[in-house]
């Protein structure tokens, strides 16, 4: 079987020990699973998010998008109005979910390379007193931009709005204290910076919010309140069949995060990876899509070469044959590709990638 390094924003390359954790079968009714694994995970992710005791967590089957849909559909009632800040594919996806769920929502649409301006957000809040919730993406992996959740959190607090953050690609890789950032609801996924595998996402939410959300959900399987209530009442039991192997792998990934030195140490590694990647790619003649100051340590977009001989599929295949998988671009108005550096990826891996890129520059 071919083995290659995933240089993507997730799923990503995982450790052998995380993979090996999936080799045992688990019973969803057994306390060894529910108490020692599920409940432990719930406590650990809340502790990563904040030292505040105001929060609880809910695990939800499916992709990260399923957890976003669960949160929006279960916490925003017919009497609420949502402001969505959109500057990329995943902000757009929040808007699409709101449309599917028939939420009362308004969207602040920005260019994909445009950093949200808090002044524009504040103007929206001043113009429309009906807005009760604000939602935005933290790391918009369309471009690799890190959005200003701190500034928007201050506004949310000032105007008494519920602040929902899609931290899919940042939680566990960038230090956050969601209480200090005035984040009321944070959503992420098992297969991102915690370095687990795909299969479930999770929502970290203020207890007061989820306690008062009964009956809002627009979906049976994505009813966040009912999932939370069941886990609270039955020591981590899921309402429907849980992805047991994936959950056990995530527990192992959390242990390895702690062994690495926590989020601070992981951020340091990711940041070093990203800086090495950008410097090396620039030395090879590639230009990043964003200004350096807007880069996140998660993923970087690069302009495609302008030479007419360049073909992304050929470039992709050439790198894959050398053991690396990268991502196509997702920016609507620029021809680019993306390289991630999260997961079980280290400086030596980035150096080997740069050598592979140099060997693959057949279009120059």
In percent, how helical is the residue content?
A: 25-40%
For the biggest β-sheet, the strand order reads: 2-10-9-8-5-3-4
What is the CA-CA span between the terminal residues?
32 Å
Beta-strand segment tally: 14
Figure out the total of helices. Answer: 12
The main β sheet shows up as:
7 strands, mixed
Gyration radius over CA:
21 Å
In oligomeric terms, what are we looking at?
single chain
What's the SSE pattern?
A: EHHEHEHEHEEEHEEEHHHHEHEEEH
Measured by DSSP, the beta-strand proportion falls in 15-25%
Quick summary:
With about 375 residues, the chain is an alpha/beta fold.
Describe this structure in words.
- The chain is of the alpha/beta class.
- Helices cover 40% and strands 16% of the residues.
- The protein contains 12 helices and 14 strands.
- The chain has a 7-stranded mixed sheet, with helices on both faces. It has a 3-stranded antiparallel sheet with strand order 11-14-13, with no helix packed on it. The protein has a two-stranded parallel sheet with strand order 1-12.
- A hairpin with a 4-residue loop joins β6 and β7.
- α3 crosses α4.
- The protein is globular, with a radius of gyration of 21 Å.
- The chain starts with a strand and ends in a 5-residue tail after the last helix.
- 47% of the residues are buried.
């Amino acid at each position: 079987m071919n083995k290659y390094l995933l240089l993507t924003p997730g799923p990503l390359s995982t450790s052998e020990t995380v993979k090996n954790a999936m080799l045992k079968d688990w019973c969803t009714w057994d306390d060894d699973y529910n108490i020692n694994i599920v409940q432990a995970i719930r406590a650990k992710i809340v502790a990563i998010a904040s030292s505040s005791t105001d929060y609880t967590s809910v695990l939800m089957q499916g992709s990260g998008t399923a957890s976003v849909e669960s949160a929006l559909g279960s916490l925003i009632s017919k009497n609420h109005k949502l402001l969505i800040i959109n500057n990329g594919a995943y902000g757009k996806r929040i808007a699409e979910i709101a449309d599917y769920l028939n939420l009362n929502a308004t969207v602040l649409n920005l260019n994909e390379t445009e950093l949200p301006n808090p002044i524009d957000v504040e103007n929206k809040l001043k113009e429309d007193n009906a807005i009760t919730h604000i939602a935005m993406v933290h790391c918009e992996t369309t471009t690799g931009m890190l959005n200003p959740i701190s500034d928007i959190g201050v506004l949310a607090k000032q105007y008494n709005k519920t602040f929902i953050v899609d931290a899919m690609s940042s939680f566990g890789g960038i230090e956050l204290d969601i209480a200090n950032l005035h984040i009321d609801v944070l959503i992420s996924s098992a297969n991102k910076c915690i370095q687990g595998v795909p299969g479930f996402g999770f929502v970290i939410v203020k207890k007061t919010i989820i306690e008062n959300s009964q009956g809002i959900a627009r979906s049976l399987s994505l009813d966040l309140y009912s999932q939370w209530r069941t886990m609270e009442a039955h020591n981590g039991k899921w309402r429907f069949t849980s992805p047991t192997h994936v959950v056990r792998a995530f527990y192992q990934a959390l242990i390895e995060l702690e062994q690495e030195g926590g989020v601070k140490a992981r951020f340091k590694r990711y940041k070093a990876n990203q800086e090495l990647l950008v410097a090396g790619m620039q030395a090879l003649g590639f230009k990043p899509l964003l200004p350096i100051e807007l880069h996140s340590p998660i993923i970087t977009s690069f302009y495609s070469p302008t030479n007419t001989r360049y073909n992304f599929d050929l470039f992709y295949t050439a790198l894959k044959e050398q053991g690396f998988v990268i991502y196509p671009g997702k920016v609507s108005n620029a021809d680019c590709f993306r390289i991630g550096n999260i997961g079980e990826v280290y400086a030596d891996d980035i150096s080997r990638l740069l050598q592979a890129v140099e060997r693959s520059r057949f279009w120059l």
